[in-house]
Amino acid sequence: MNLQKITFTNKEGQTLVGRLELPADRHPHNFVLFAHCFTCNKNLSAVKNIGKALTSNGFAVLRFDFTGLGESDGDFADTNFSGNVNDLIAAAAYLEKNYQAPSLLIGHSLGGAAVVFAAAEIPSIKAVATIGAPSNPVHVKHLLHSSLEEISRQGHAVVNLSGRDFTIKKQFLDDLETKSLPEIVKHLRKPILILHSPQDTTVGIINAEEIYVAARHPKSFVSLDGADHLLMQKKDSTYAGDVIAGWAKRYLFIEEETVLKTKHQVAASLDAEDGFTTQMKVGSHYMHADEPISFGGNNFGPSPYEFVSAGLSACTAMTIQMYAKRKGWQVDNVEVHTSYSRSHKEDCEDCESNTAKIDTFKRDIRFKGNLDEAQLKRLLEIADKCPVHKTLHTDTQVLTTLIPS
Question: On the chain, which terminus has fewer CB atoms closer than 10 Å, C or N?
């Protein structure tokens, strides 16, 4: 996981804090903005799990704290729903300037309503997903039911939500009254995915129906059966993230990697702008080779020598198990740990000379099983007879020809 702390300013000049999570093994094909639920923050476990599911599918995800929440500046009492929408617009502008304009908006609970409004204001957004969203922002009032009279009379009240006290001002409620989500959804004309749990006791399933009916096609509904409103079970939030990733790919531009074709066992392809990140076709499998960040790479895959070391480790383990099975010996597990370096030759005459160094693979082997000393000794001898080991010890040749363009 590649997680970066980022800051940006909102419309009022206040500093908002977020986390940008990037895929661990590739450049992101699309950027996502995530809006958390009412009075929540970017670090809610469900938000993290959904983000991880998306990054594993090649998306970059920005989750941030709305004004007055979490690490972000501002006083929550002075915020409102319109402010949340403006925060999303500011976050989108930050991504466009510093990375890439976001193409997907995801919102949870009241954040789901906010992303629908924001999507109408952010040209780069191609698709929207809501999770447990109310069909109208005014729905929040039912959470404040016992304090509505006090807010109306005094202009504000301290309300306890999920064990924490928040000051809610009348302007917050007045702002909600001006927002009609069904009307916005009706004219959105962007693909929308609505995820909702039938067992949601905070925002009833009827809200999902109202959003779906108001929206134009293409629109989709997925039931999060058995989940609670906050998706506190990891399996529910991870599932939601996987579903959104799969659905969104139908509506977003994702550049296909060039499919390498070769008559050889392995092929590698590297564009000029990709640094060291090399596409690989190994047999029928596709992967990346790269160099560590410290060497100027992106660390999106093993280095060339790590691939060689991996081949030696795998071949050693296979050869040992094959021999043990033929002998009827009990080897429950064999671990082969290999690393590569250039070391001085043993007993060399000029050990200070660079020419005296030799390619060295250090290999450590661990066995689990019912084996005596004689068997262990023999298996170590067999390790030296694995085909890759033999190849590394014999004279080899590389025959290179030019493939016509």
Answer: C
Query: Residue 155 is encoded by which pair of tokens?
Result: 């202009």
User: DSSP per residue over 202-238, as a string?
Assistant: SS-THHHHHHHHHSPSSEEEEE-TT--TT--SHHHHH
State the Cα–Cα distance between residues 22 and 331, nearest whole angstrom.
Answer: 40
- Asked if 135 contacts 204 with a C-beta cutoff of 8 angstroms, the reply is no
Cβ pair 219, 194 in contact under 8 A: yes
Record the tokens describing residue 393, joined without a space.
């010890």
Give rounded-to-5 percent helix, strand, coil for the chain.
Answer: 35, 25, 40
The reported pLDDT for the residue numbered 259 is 65
Segment holding 158, helix H or strand E: strand 156-161
Q: Which residues contact 394 (CB under 8 A, 6 or more apart)?
A: none
d(CA 95, CA 118): 15
For 213, residues 6+ apart whose C-beta sits below 8 A from its C-beta are none
- pLDDT score recorded for residue 348: 45
Among 200, 3, 18, smallest CA distance to 112 is for 200
CB count in 10 Å sphere of residue 277: 20
Supply 320's token pair.
Answer: 């040992």
23: three-class secondary structure by DSSP: coil
DSSP β-ladder status, 278-282 and 266-269: antiparallel
Query: 211-258, pLDDT tens digit by residue?
Result: 999 999 999 999 999 999 999 999 999 999 999 999 999 999 987 766
299: CB partners within 8 A, 6+ apart: 290, 291, 292, 293
Q: Which residue has the tokens 């050869």?
A: 319
Model-level pTM? 0.74
HEC per residue, 39-82: CCCCCCHHHHHHHHHHHCCCEEEEEECCCCCCCCCCCHHHCCHH
